[in-house]
Structure formats: structure tokens, C-alpha cells
Amino acid sequence: MFVALDFETTGLNPQHSRVIEIGMARIIDGKIADTYTSLIYPAASVPYAITALTGITEEQLSQAPLFEDIALEIKKFLGDAIIIAHNASFDIGFLKKEFLRAGIEPPENPAVCTVKLAKRLLPELRSKSLNALKKHYKIIHKNAHRALPDAIVAAKVFLKMLPKLEEEFGIRNTAQLIKFQEISQKSLNFKFAKKSLAEDMASAPDSPGVYFFKDRNGKTIYIGKAKSLKKRIRSYFLATASKKAKKITRKAKHIEFKRTNTELTALLAETKLIKRYDPEFNSQLKNFPQTFFLKIETDKKFPRPKIVSQLRSDGADYFGPYRNRETAYDMLDVVNKAFLTRECTETEFRKKKICYLAEIGRCAAPCVYPDEKKYAEELARVYRFLSGENQDALVLLLNKMKSKADKKLFEEAAQLRDAVQTLLKQLKRAAILAEPVNSANALVEIKGSERNDYLLFLNGNFHIKYDITEEKNFFDVALDDYFSGAINYEEKISAETIEYFKIALAWLNSKRDLINIYYLKDFETKEELFRSVKGL
Prior knowledge:
Elements: E1 2-9, E2 19-28, E3 31-39, H1 48-54, H2 58-61, H3 67-78, E4 82-85, H4 88-101, E5 111-113, H5 114-121, H6 130-136, H7 147-169, H8 174-180, H9 195-202, E6 209-214, E7 220-226, H10 229-234, H11 243-251, E8 254-259, H12 263-277, E9 292-296, E10 306-308, E11 317-322, H13 325-338, H14 346-350, H15 356-359, H16 372-386, H17 391-406, H18 410-426, E12 441-446, E13 453-458, E14 461-464, H19 475-484, H20 495-510, E15 515-519, H21 526-532
Parallel strand pairs: 1-4, 4-5
Antiparallel strand pairs: 1-2, 2-3, 6-7, 6-8, 9-10, 9-11, 12-13, 12-15, 13-14
Helix pairs in contact: 5-7, 12-20, 13-17, 13-18, 17-18
């Protein structure tokens, strides 16, 4: 976890100047998740130049708390996070001095300086000021020289830097990151122990793909994927390279690579090839982002929607993936409050007793009134909602909220209001596919820099148009079978296919701006589909 920090102060020296405003932005999972800001009474005069720069007046500060009054709040917000700051020595210096003045032990959080990172990542940029970096990364920034807006910009700059840090310099953990900012530009030069590796690296293209480190006998000792083969392979020979990278380059004699159109097909190819070759320096169990699904068990007469983290071949329908647990449970909460599907466990359901949710009109009570047709109709509405038709759910929630308010059931109305707000918030974060992922029939077009990729989801299986791991490609055959009605439905999805499903769906969910989805049911023939998908 990271926290971006910024202070506005009465001057430049923490020994003589005081803090007048603090802003902090907490970063979790690559996003700004929370913020904290406060004016701070400095118990000293504020120079006119500072007021002119920040707009903060002594009158405003006269009503603000002393630093010692909010010191513990600040310490709690920081927690054990790594502090991100633009010119970190300035902000950390003031942070420690203000804590010491308050008679409280200063936090000892490690810090990362975006100025130092910019010097190493962007040597061509003349100015490394926050304003220059904001312009370089095309970040919208209002209220400059105020603590919270500047902290948020510093956080966004840092997040923009992360992909380059990993891709070009192999920075994958916080220890490497902290070390990297202190390394001089001169020491970032290449260090080749073998001429053959230098020659191989020189021929690597600046495109996505998979690379293979091979020993003197031609045996593959490591397989990796890259958004840019040239930049990723380069990172193995920098001073910042990890111990593992250095072991690989010491043992390797040659580097080979295969290009792909996009990062996703490189990722899928890497996964397949690692399983196939089991290289010495690869771990079979890679850590892919955890995703969540909303599951409906179709073998039950009265199923209840529930959240799971595993996609299984069990006949159930799965909607998703949702990139985190909070989003998944928010969607389930909307389903529970907008529709009349049951929420109880199987144990409670078998008791066949009316529950509180049925009494307040939030459940159809199939435990007591087992009307299969009525429940199936309600379930169909849930399916439509999970498939992206949000209007029905919104109207239902608004009508229920109005009804509860009219009856002066204000607590229940407030719960429905929260569900409406959740629904509006989730509209842009709905499931990537508008059909259950285990039975979807869809073509996904993925934009590449030179050539697009195409993924075909087909009844519990999927095919890649340009698959570098297979000699024979079944993409076109599968499409022909679908439109001719000769498709074979998968009764059981293999564990390997489920793993690829999850990898592909998680990636697609995070790259929505790069994809187009075409549902096969909307086309009569393959030719009609191809006319809509220009690149095929």
C-alpha cells in the first residue's frame, strides 16, 4: 500500500517554518482509494508570498487545529504504507519535525520520491517539476499548490510510472523500487557477460510476445512474456535486475522470442508454454489477480445468487468476473434488494418458514410458496440485469424506495437509496460479458498496435485466432461449426481451460478500452459477422 503526501508550509526549512496544510491520498490496487486533508494552525505568521501562492489566509488558519491535535489521525492514515512524495526529502523533513514538536515519535515509513524516479525514467524531460510531469502524463490538475490536489497528482504520476518501472527496469517489488531511486543514471547502463546475449537482445522487437532464455545445450531455462520484448529483455541486464534475473543471465547462452499481436495473447502463450516445458527458473503457480463471480446454480429449482472466487465446470451459470470482492458484493446487494430471489442458506430454506425478508417484500418465499414458474420469471429478470440491462433494476429500486418512504419506513427506504447509489456506481464496472461466462458465445476483438487479436468464447471453450503455441488452429473451424449448427457443447470444462478463462477475463476486465465484443446470436452467418469485424 502507498500513501501520497504533500504539505503546504510557511517556508522551505522545517527547522524554522511550519506546516499549514496536509493532503494525503491512499493507493490500493493501483487506484486512489481514500484521501485525507486538513488545514493546520501554524502558531506563526504566514508570509504574503505563501498566501498569494496557495490562497491560504491567516484568517482561515485561525480556526484550524494544531498539528498535535491531528497527529495521531495522520499517523493512522499513513499506517505502514510507503510514502510517495514529489521531492520527498522536503515533505518527510516537515513530517518528522512536526511530530517531534508535538512530542510524538515520528513515523518511520519508507519513502519514494517521484523527482528521483523522474530523473531515472525520463532523463529527456528538461524539468522534473510536478507541473512538468503532469503535462507529460496528461493529468488534469486543478488547485495547484494546495496539499490534497498536489498529493493526488503525485499519486497519479507515480501510478503512471509503474508500468515503465516493471517493463524496462524489472522493478516488481517495493524493495527494488526504493533501491532504484537511489541508483545513479550511470550505473543503469547495460552489463553483458556474453556477446551472444548482447546480439540476441539487439534483435528483440519493440512489440508484445514471449521470450525464452536457453542454456548452452539449447534447453529452455526460463520463459516470460512482455508488452515490449525489447524493453523487458533489456531489464535483465541492468544494475537494478533482481537476483533471479542475474542467475538466469549467468546460465543463459541465447535468448529467443516469439511475437504476438497483444499483451493478452503473450500472457496466455506464456502460461501454456510454461506448462509444456516446465523451465528451471519458472514457477508453475503464477500469481494472477484474484477475481470474483456471481454464481447461479441451475440444477436447483429455487437457486440463490452467491459470490464465489472459483470458476468451475459444475453446470452452474457464472457472471463476471468482478475485479475485487467489494464490487462483486455490491452487485449481489443490488440483486438482493431489487429482485425477489432468495438469500437464505440451504439449511434455512429447508425449514420452510417465512422469514423477515419475505415479510418486508424482499423475497418471493419459495420455501413456503414453491411456485417454480413465478421464481423462474424473477430469475430471468436477474439474468437480464447481470447481462447489462440495468434499467429494470433501477426502476424497481426507485419504486420500492418511494413506496417505503410513503409508508414512513425510512430505514428501509434508506437501504434502497444506498442500493440505487451502488447500482449507479457499478454501471461502468459491470461484468465484461453480457452472457454467463461458462456458456457465452462471443467474439472479442483486442486492439493491437500493428495487428488486432481475436478471442472466440464458445460454450465453455475458447480459441485464439493467432495462437503461437499451436500448429493447428481451430478458430475458423469453431466459427464454421457454430453457424452451421454442428457445434459440440462442452459438458465438462477442463481445469486448464478454466485457468485460461480466468486469465483472459481478468485481463479483458482491466482493459475495456481496448476491446470490442460481438455476440454471435446477433449474426445469421459468419460472413455477416466478418463484415462487422473489419480486421478479420
